[in-house]
Amino acid sequence: MLNQLPTNVWNWFRGDNSSESSKFGTFPGVFTPTVLTILGAIMYLRLGQVVGNAGLLGAILIILLAHIITVSTGLAVSSVVTNTRVGAGGAFAIISQSLGLEVGGSVGIPLFIAQGISVALYDLAFSEGWLRIFPSHSGVLVSLIAFVIVFGIAYISAQFAARIQYLILGIIGLSLFSVFLASFPIGGRAGLTETAVLWGSFSEWSFWETFAIFFPAVTGIMVGISLSGSLKDPRRSIPIGTMSAIGLTMLVYLLLAYWLSLAASTTELLANTTIMVDKAFWGWAILAGMLGATFSSALGSLVAAPRVMQALAQHGILPFSDYLAQETKKGEPRQALYVSGAIGLVTLLIALASGGLNAVASIITMFFLITYAMLNLVVLIEQMLSTVSFRPTFRVPRWVPLIGLVGCIFVMLLINPVFSLVALVLVVLVYSYLMRRNLAYLPSDVRSGMFISLAEWATTRVSRLPPAVKRTWKPSVLAPISQTQELTGSYRFLRALAAPQGAIHALGIYPEGDDSALKGLKDLTNAFTDEGIFARTTFLEDADLVNGVRLATQILRSTFFRPNLLFLNLRAESDLDVLQQLVDKTAAYNMGIVLLARHPVRALGRQHLINVWISHQGNDWQIDLRWSNSDLALLLAYQLTQNWSGKINLCMAVRAEEDVNPATTFLHELVELVRLPKNSDVTVVQAPFAEALHEVSRADLAIFGLPNPARLTFCQEIVAAVDGSCLFVRDSGEESALA
């Protein structure tokens, strides 16, 4: 039995005990790594200077202000994790489940890189502490050996790393106990003999500069949260572990600030960064705690970073995701660990060669702050949406995440505006890249709900305002379809008619029980969406096409985003009676008519030149398009020209020779007032309308006004006379080319 003891102890450290779960509980998985990261180098090396510069009350105020952000973020995270099943990746998982993989990835990738680089930063801090004890040792060698040891522990298992951290937590506890003993006059020491300076002179740094020096001390909560995929019960462990760690460490910092103000003078505090070593009961315990804190921070970062990377890879966000998403039978992300270790090692070598990482350290702090800000934003959005699905078992008021969000932005600008901008630009670039990847949507994505709520809010506000449809008009096309081929043949034209801000509503009408003719209509509509055009498909069971369109139009006219154009095709084989009924009935629904007659051979040609025929304006030649039914014709001509990179030619037929010059002037003024492209031409022909059609150069598309009531046989005659594709349009009264 005794011979087996060392082996059993080793197996316990490695986590090889088969009876033990490989998942972490609250204490080893969240509380311990969070405490060890927060009680780090800032506590041992910078807190004394903060107290010396700001005084006791100033230091307490700085500590409390810094913890307001951390406490707010911790409470916000605690709320959101009690509402959802948090997967692997910590902050990445929380943000992705609410705002989508693109937003989660744009924050998760920089966060993973920051954690990888942090390994080198903490390793260098450990080396500096070691050299204070052994100044004759090689700093490069100490750094490399420390890195190898950290990587080796992380490689064995996260369980092994967690149990090593138990020892480090004990060492830090011993160093704090040494501080406590130094408070009393024992062992030949005088105890606390100084008088506390309540408010400092800020001779070294201003209040906010001192705040910026201290703030990195509280940016350690991400380590525990990042282990969410390795927790037995993240919904319970993250809130309890995070908040208890924040509460304990805040108390430690406040008590240490009080102790330092009584243990040393202002001069000593400002001049000596290792004042705690000199004033503690056992100086070696402080040095050991300093080494343990920096070592554990490096270890915690190297354990957390691969798990964030693995979570990113599991969603296909990273290159070589299939490789990086792999794990061992015990759940260790070895492939991601290799990459994380490589990032840390390369960063360490660069730092050793260049002499420091101050700039990179500032950017890392920004990435953590951006992550905190996004976590608060997620909770704030979820709260504002007021959806039934958001019912966390731990609720916080809205002002909690709001304070956290505003505080993060404020601190970023306070610490370093330049690095804040650099970090934000990197996040935006990653987001832009991921948006082009067309990543999958997660079921819990609340972006659609967010935009729906915004639309509902806007709809409510707009309903209280006078309508301004002419100023905000854009094409919203209703296309009744009885066969999918009809939409296929009109696809390119409809795309040019609607892009980029218009909409297309495909109305599939089929007889009872037989929708076979509409097979593939949904896929075709989705193609519009893929090209950035809002498109929807509605299926209506009705044997009568005219009645189906009438019903749909009556229903849709009461909706907020209703169609304003009815698109129809005029072909040689078209049923003119059906088209005539559709055109006539639509006039009562305040919808414009777009009737396309494509030439059977030329089709739309080069999709370049558009002839727009304007009616004679009468003897006064005043610009007033309301009676001439030309507003929609001009608007659609402009819309098509923008998407075709084409050219507009305004045409008019006049009977008298004395009308040629006024008509020409009128059309040129119309080009200016309608704000048509500068390359637009005008053509005035002295001839009857039927003859003028032959004298104007053939265009790829000719646009004519459609009178009310319309006569479709006359439209067919115009198509034959033009010998090209024509578009007949009728205004609804809600368009204005002059608006």
Bin the helical content.
55-70%
The domain tally reads: 3
Biggest β-sheet: count, sense, barrel? 10 strands, mixed
Low-confidence stretches: 1-5, 16-20
Largest sheet strand order: 3-2-1-4-5-10-9-6-7-8
Query: For the residues shown, what is the average pLDDT?
Result: 82
Describe the global form.
elongated
The protein's oligomeric status is single chain
Span between N and C termini? 93 Å
Give your account of this protein's structure.
- Helices cover 59% and strands 8% of the residues.
- The chain is built from 28 helices and ten strands.
In a few lines, what is going on in this structure?
The chain has 739 residues and is α/β, with parallel strands linked by helices. It contains 28 helices and ten strands. It has a ten-stranded mixed β-sheet, sandwiched between helices.
Task: Note the main attributes of this structure.
3 domains; Rossmann fold; disordered N terminus; alpha/beta; 739 residues; 28 helices; elongated; 10-stranded mixed beta sheet; Amino acid/polyamine transporter I; single chain; 8% strand
Write the layout of secondary structure elements.
Elements: H1 5-14, H2 26-38, H3 41-45, H4 47-81, H5 91-99, H6 101-133, H7 139-156, H8 158-181, H9 207-214, H10 221-226, H11 234-263, H12 266-271, H13 275-279, H14 283-314, H15 321-324, H16 334-354, H17 358-385, H18 399-415, H19 417-436, H20 447-463, E1 476-481, H21 484-498, E2 503-510, H22 521-530, E3 534-541, H23 545-556, E4 565-569, H24 576-586, E5 592-597, E6 609-613, H25 631-644, E7 647-654, H26 660-674, E8 681-686, H27 689-695, E9 701-705, H28 712-722, E10 726-730
Parallel strand pairs: 1-2, 1-4, 2-3, 4-5, 6-7, 6-9, 7-8, 9-10
Antiparallel strand pairs: 5-10
